[in-house]
Amino acid sequence: MAGKRKNPADNIYPPRVYRGKSKFEFHPATGGAVQLCPLDSPVSLIWAKYEAALKNIQEKTNLSGLIDQFFESADYARLGTETQKDYKKYSKKIIPVFGKMDPDGVKPQHIRKYMDKRGVVAPVQANREKSFLSRVYGWAYERGMVAGNPCKGVRQFKEEERERYITDEEYAALYGVAPPVVQIAMELAYLCLARQGDVLALQKSQLLEMGIFIRQGKTAAKQIKAWSDRLTAVIELAKSLPLKQGLSSVYVLHQQNGRRYTRDGFNSRWQQAREEAQAKHPHLLFDFTFHDLKAKGVSDLEGSLQEKQQISGHKTITQTARYDRKVKIVPVVGGQK
Asked: Which pLDDT value is given to residue 253?
C-alpha cells in the first residue's frame, strides 16, 4: 500500500506517483522508479502515462509477458527457423486462453482442461501447443521466474504412428509431373534420408568431394552422404535451376532471386504436384506427406535394422523401426528353404 502524501493537493495524482527532480515518477510495489512526464504536465497526461506504465508492468508479469520474454531470449534465437515459426503459431492459441494469468497461477488442471477442449478437434496440435508451453515454463524455471512447470504430469494424446509406405509406382508418378524444384527435393529426401528442413537449408558448401555433408536439424547427427550416380544426377539437375541475371545463390534449392525456399513456399509447390499427379493417375493414391519420403528411404535400404540406424542417423533403433514401413515378405509353413 502506498503511504500518505505529504501534500494533500497531490492526492489528484495516481497511486505511487510522486514528484521527482524533473519529472513525475511512478514507484511500483515491485520496486524501482518509472519516469512519466515533466513536472509541468497536466493531470490528464500524468494519468495516461501512469496507466501505460502500469499496463506494461502487468504484461511483463503475466503469462503473455513471459512468452514474450522467451521469444526475446537466446534460447529461442538458437532454435531453427521453422521451429521458431511453429512456436509463434502455437503461442497464438495459448495466449488468448492463459495470457492474462499469473504464470504461477496456471495449474496442471488448467492445462488438462485446455487439452481436453482443444483435443476434440485437434489432438495433435493440442500436444504441440502443450509442448511449447512446457518449453517456456522450463526456460523460465531455470531462471527463477516461475515456481514450477504446470505442464509436467499432464498426459498428451496418443498419436497414431504413420504406416504409409510410398510405392515405387507412386513415387515415379509424382516425380513425373513435379517441377524441377520438387523433383530435386524428393530425390534428396529419399536418397539421403533427410528431413524437409535439412533439404531446403542445404548449401552448396556442403557438397564435398566425398559426398554431401548433412547435419540433421533435429538430432544434430553429422554425416556425409556418399556420392552415387543417382545423387550426382540430382545435384546436376539443381545446377539448372534458374537465377535472375547477375545473381547467384549459396543454396542448392533456390528461388530465382537466389533465396532459399521457405517451408510454406515449397509446400505449395509440393501440394500442387500431388494434385496434378492425382488427376493424371486417378488409380493411385497420393495421400502421403513429404516426410514419408524419408520413411521410404529407410524402408528401401538393404540390411538389418541396426545397419539402417547407422545410415539414417537416428539416436535409437526404435526411431529407425518407426520409419521402416515396407511390409516384409516371409515364408509360409513348409515354404522355408
From this structure: 96
d(CA 248, CA 236): 16
Phi, psi of 17 (to 5 degrees): -105, 125
Against a cut of 0.70, is the pTM above it? no
8 Å CB contact between 165 and 296: yes
- End-to-end distance of the chain based on CA atoms, in angstroms? 88
Quote the distance between the C-alpha of residue 169 and its chain's center.
Answer: 32
Closest CA relative to residue 114, chosen from 154, 85, 86, 68? 154
Residues 321, 301, 212: CA angle, nearest 5 degrees: 105
Domains detected in the chain: 12-61 (no CATH), 81-142 (no CATH), 168-323 (1.10.443.10)
* CA-wise closest residue to 266 among 183, 175, 204: 183
| pLDDT tens digits, 119-152 | 999 999 999 999 999 999 999 999 888 999 999 9
- Whether 249 contacts 243, CB under 8 Å: yes
